[in-house]
């Protein structure tokens, strides 16, 4: 119960609406299951409470899966919270009236009285309802691939297993603890992403870079990268296209070889950190990724493209072009750590090498010092 409250407070504070609703749902239904188990499910009241709670859990969970994230503190969020807790609140009110629920046993459907096995308390009706809800939750988990979906799927599965193993007190208790714990982990993962991951490109942000630099060893190189004429893209095509360019460049930079770790430094600048690699290997990897960005077939909305879909369709039928292919290039500066040098100084030297690359004509890799590729050619000669 306390873990569910903690999960709700965390989720509400960071506006994770579905996780907050799931935590409130877990806390209330978990309390009802505990109350039924404490009295003993052989008692009529406790059995009906347990049975109806086991039906509420998958039904409400399925409803939560299709909800959008809204702050639980706004008007719509409060309405959703009330709708989520109302069935459990009604059950709790009836539970508090002695004999109220026990009188329902003769009216229960046989599927609510038949369990899946001698050692299981999961009735057939609950199993029938839970199966498609679990399947939907798993499908959303596999398609969306977010920690929220993983937590929602895991929490429902843990609750269903807890219902099935309620006779095994220790195991069911652990499962009921696991369910809200997964929700807490999902919120913490969201908090981490807010602090360390750039939301536009999906790559680690500058704060993550600072942590990386603090833990580097003695031998490393730092590359600073900048999108050439990025302001021109924004001025010509708009900020939406600028964001598209940033995402494309980040996707290509992620493929860098030689063990480089990519970070977004800020604006149109990126940073790649290489640890324990030969200088020549790093420069070749950077030049390869530079060429990959340059050769990427980037299509954007033409400045003269009609803004309405109808006009755009008519223009295409007349043979007009509503998009154009543009070339995106990047400039790169790389520096390697000297003895007893702090990472901040290496970043500054890499930044100077970047400006040197821009001054030399852009769309190239420049080093802070002798280029290892030239040294190799001289050695061969």
From TrEMBL:
Region described as Disordered: spans on this chain: 297-325, 357-381
Which EC number(s) does the record attach to this protein? 2.7.7.65
Q: Which residues belong to any copy of the GGDEF domain?
A: 218-370
What is catalysed by this protein? 2 GTP = 3',3'-c-di-GMP + 2 diphosphate
Quote the InterPro entries the UniProt record gives: Diguanylate_Cyclase, GGDEF_dom, Nucleotide_cyclase, Rev_trsase/Diguanyl_cyclase
The record, for Pfam families, names: GGDEF
Q: Provide the alphabetized UniProt keywords.
A: Membrane, Transmembrane, Transmembrane helix
> Cross-referenced PROSITE patterns, in alphabetical order?
GGDEF (PS50887)
Q: Where is the composition biased (Basic residues)?
A: 302-316
- Keyword set includes Membrane: yes
Name of this protein: diguanylate cyclase
Task: Provide the species name.
Answer: Marinobacterium zhoushanense
